[in-house]
């Protein structure tokens, strides 16, 4: 359903993505792991065209965009296929939790207020914030804000949800509640691509793990392939740094 | 100079002067509304880095900031008719009030442009990205997400400059506009009680400013309702 072909992106002289090829099936949950600067976040942002790739093709569902000759209409229709959950939540500060979730339903999907509200309430219930619908982002904790961010993405019922390090900005004690919500959505069969540093979470939740380093896909496979039977030295090095307890369990 | 100071006259003069408060407020209201429109238009080239226009706007803003409003008023009053004369348009008989409104609108426009620009730049880009990511257009993002928040940030500066602008209107009499200040000057000429007239004027301007401040404060509280310390009363 998602097909990324030969995706390239540079910032100045720094080539961040050096020809990425990834296919994702409907309902698949993919985690992208890798050291900082490996291009994971840039890859995710290219899928949403928050960054314009310099080369390659991005296909989501029936929308396919070749980099280079893109118009605004194509970009907007590609963006409607996906929804993004940001590291820093990026909630609309002047809107309540409910209004944040309703915004896309009203403005982008052109639903009426009643229907939008029903959908929004349903997803806010799902992320466990039914009692916070009238709170503004500034009145919510980081974990609650991120759950609103997830609700905002989920409400639009996109083909795929893109998670850009959704727990990296959170206090350690708030990480759990957000991961729990993501796991819950995963069980419902939503296609998801997750960039994360939460190794155990990625291992448990993912159908497939992609390990990136230095702008290329180094290795991909099932969690078992990557965490236990990795073939590449770079993957092994990275995992050793990220999950020291692995040494004891083997 | 003048006659013996008579405090009773201060109260007596006030109703005579407030009859002309309407003109003062007319100048203020028109120049604020036009100023806001000019400010929005002038902020756009700077926000979107449109070449040439951006430099022209920068020059306009720096000219307005760098020259006294009294001189701007004279430049418009004497200069505009002279320029339009080149195209054989005669506006020398136009009411002086219009020159005042034009000058104050241009002056407010430059100040508002800077206020708007800085308010819009102050909103973190993440919200724009979030708006784009859910499929909103540039325009939808601007008027649904950015603009309502920019107004809140800009509001205290806008209210300050409106209050400043009210006081600046007292210069309109220099080109013969009969506003409150203008009436005060004629009252001095006819009664020779200068001090009493100026005290009356001070009282009236002060009361208007206090009322404006009160109104702005209430509006600000409403705009701030989603801030951590804003009182949530919707």
From TrEMBL, chain A:
PANTHER family: AMINO ACID IMPORT ATP-BINDING PROTEIN, L-CYSTINE IMPORT ATP-BINDING PROTEIN TCYN
Listed transmembrane segments: none
Keyword Transport among record annotations: yes
UniProt signal peptide: none
GO MF terms, alphabetically ordered: ABC-type amino acid transporter activity; ATP binding; ATP hydrolysis activity
Membrane topology listed for this record: Peripheral membrane protein
Key words of the record: ATP-binding, Cell membrane, Membrane, Nucleotide-binding, Transport
Domain ABC transporter: 2-239
GO terms for cellular component: plasma membrane
Predominant location category: membrane
Compartments it resides in: Cell membrane
Designated name of the protein: Amino acid ABC transporter ATP-binding protein
Keyword Secreted included in the entry's annotation: no
Pfam families: ABC_tran (PF00005)
UniProtKB/TrEMBL annotation, chain B:
Gene3D superfamilies according to UniProt: MetI-like (1.10.3720.10)
PROSITE patterns linked: ABC_TM1 (PS50928)
Gene Ontology CC terms, in alphabetical order: ATP-binding cassette (ABC) transporter complex
Keyword Membrane: yes
GO BP, sorted A to Z: amino acid transport
Transmembrane parts of this sequence: 27-48, 197-216
Residues spanning the signal sequence: none
Database matches in InterPro entries: AA_ABC_transptr_permease_3TM, ArtM/GltK/GlnP/TcyL/YhdX-like, MetI-like, MetI-like_sf
Compartments, as annotated in UniProt: Cell membrane
Protein family per UniProt: Belongs to the binding-protein-dependent transport system permease family.
Protein's name in the database: Cysteine ABC transporter permease
Organism: Viridibacillus arvi
Lineage: Bacteria, Bacillati, Bacillota, Bacilli, Bacillales
């Amino acid at each position: 359903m998602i097909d990324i072909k030969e995706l390239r992106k540079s910032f100045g002289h720094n080539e961040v993505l050096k020809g990425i090829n990834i296919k994702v099936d409907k309902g698949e949950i993919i985690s992208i792991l890798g050291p900082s600067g490996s291009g994971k976040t840039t890859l995710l942002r290219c899928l949403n065209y928050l960054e314009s790739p310099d080369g390659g093709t991005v296909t989501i569902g029936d929308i396919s965009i070749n980099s280079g000759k893109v118009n605004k209409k194509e970009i907007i229709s590609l963006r409607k296929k996906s929804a993004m959950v940001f590291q820093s939540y990026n909630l609309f500060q002047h809107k309540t939790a409910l209004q944040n979730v309703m915004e896309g339903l009203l403005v982008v999907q052109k639903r009426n207020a009643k229907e939008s509200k029903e959908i929004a309430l349903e997803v806010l219930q799902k992320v466990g914030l039914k009692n916070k619908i009238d709170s503004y982002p500034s009145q919510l904790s980081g974990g609650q804000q991120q759950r609103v961010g997830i609700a905002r993405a989920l409400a639009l019922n996109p083909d795929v949800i893109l998670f850009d390090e959704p727990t990296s900005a959170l206090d350690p004690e708030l990480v759990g509640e957000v991961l729990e919500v993501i796991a819950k959505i995963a069980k419902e069969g939503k296609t998801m691509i997750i960039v994360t540093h939460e190794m155990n979470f990625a291992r448990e939740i993912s159908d497939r793990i992609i390990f990136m380093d230095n702008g290329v896909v180094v290795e991909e496979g099932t969690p078992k392939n990557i965490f236990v039977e990795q073939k590449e030295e770079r993957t092994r090095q990275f995992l050793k740094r990220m999950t020291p307890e692995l040494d004891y369990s083997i | 100079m003048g006659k013996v100071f008579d405090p009773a006259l201060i109260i007596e003069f006030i109703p005579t002067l407030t009859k002309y408060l309407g003109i003062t407020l007319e100048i203020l209201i028109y120049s604020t509304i036009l100023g806001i429109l000019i400010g929005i238009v002038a902020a756009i080239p700077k926000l979107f880095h449109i070449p040439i226009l951006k430099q022209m706007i920068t020059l306009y803003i720096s000219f307005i900031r760098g020259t006294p409003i009294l001189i701007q008023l004279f430049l418009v009053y004497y200069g505009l008719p002279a320029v339009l004369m080149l195209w054989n348009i005669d506006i020398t008989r136009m009411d002086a009030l219009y020159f005042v409104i034009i000058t104050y609108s241009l002056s407010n426009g430059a100040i508002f442009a800077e206020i708007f620009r800085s308010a819009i730049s102050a909103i973190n880009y993440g919200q724009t990205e979030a708006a784009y990511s859910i499929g909103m257009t540039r325009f939808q993002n601007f008027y649904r997400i950015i603009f309502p928040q920019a107004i809140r940030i800009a509001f205290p500066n806008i209210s300050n400059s409106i209050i400043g602008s009210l006081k600046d209107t007292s210069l309109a009499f220099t080109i013969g506009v009969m506003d409150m200040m203008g009436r005060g000057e004629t009252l001095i000429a006819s009664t020779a009680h200068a001090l009493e007239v100026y005290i009356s004027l001070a009282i009236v301007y002060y009361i208007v400013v206090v009322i404006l401040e009160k109104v702005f404060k209430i509006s600000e509280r409403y705009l701030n309702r989603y801030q951590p310390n804003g009182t949530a009363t919707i």
